[in-house]
Amino acid sequence: MLTLASKLKRDDGVRGPRASNPASDSTRRVSVRDKLLVKEVAELEANLPCTCKVNFPDPNKLHYFQLTVIPDEGYYQGGKFQFEIEVPDAYNMVPPKVKCLTRIWHPNITETGEICLSLLREHSIDGTGWAPTRTLKDVVWGLNSLFTDLLNFDDPLNIEAAEHHLRDK
């Protein structure tokens, strides 16, 4: 996603260290979120699990993208699961908003797409919730792990799915 990064570099080059016209500077101001996302998206794309693909519908809006997870092992092997990820303006102080777009019978994902993943919680009592040191890479790897090693039947969000699994694997 070099489009926004190129724009940031070009704008910095045009303005120089400090622009003399404050009015034009305020119209070109880039948010902290967007500056972080340029670096994080590059890191994410370089370290993407082989079972995941990211899609940016608009390359100039790095704060909204889709993730596809295609597990290669476990119960969900061969499935194709779509997620919508939206990064709020207050990022990285708050976690991204994630929704599963694919209807799935999963103990940690409701039928309406809500996801139970501790690192997506803003306030977590177990200390594994969101922290400003986390990145989009952590989110993607966490979502990918929901289909393998983070599959949690003991503390489910979708209780029916977890009970069904215990009755009939």
List the SSEs and their pairings.
Layout: H1 2-15, H2 22-28, H3 32-46, E1 52-55, E2 64-69, E3 81-86, E4 97-100, H4 136-145, H5 159-167
Antiparallel strand pairs: 1-2, 2-3, 3-4
Question: What would a concise description of this structure say?
Answer:
This protein has 169 residues and is α+β, with helices and mostly antiparallel strands.
Describe this structure in words.
There is one protein chain. This protein is of the alpha+beta class and 169 residues long. The chain has one domain (30-165): Ubiquitin Conjugating Enzyme (Roll), CATH 3.10.110.10. It is 33% helix and 12% strand. The protein contains 5 helices and 4 strands. The chain has helices spanning 2-15, 22-28, 32-46, 136-145, 159-167, and strands at 52-55, 64-69, 81-86, 97-100. Strands 1-2-3-4 form a 4-stranded antiparallel sheet, with helices on one face. Strand 1 (52-55) and strand 2 form a beta hairpin. Helix 1 crosses helix 3 (32-46). The longest helix has 15 residues, at 32-46. The active site is at residue 116. This is E2 NEDD8-conjugating enzyme. Residues 32-169 form the UBC core domain. One of its GO terms (biological process) is protein neddylation. It is an enzyme of class 2 (transferase).
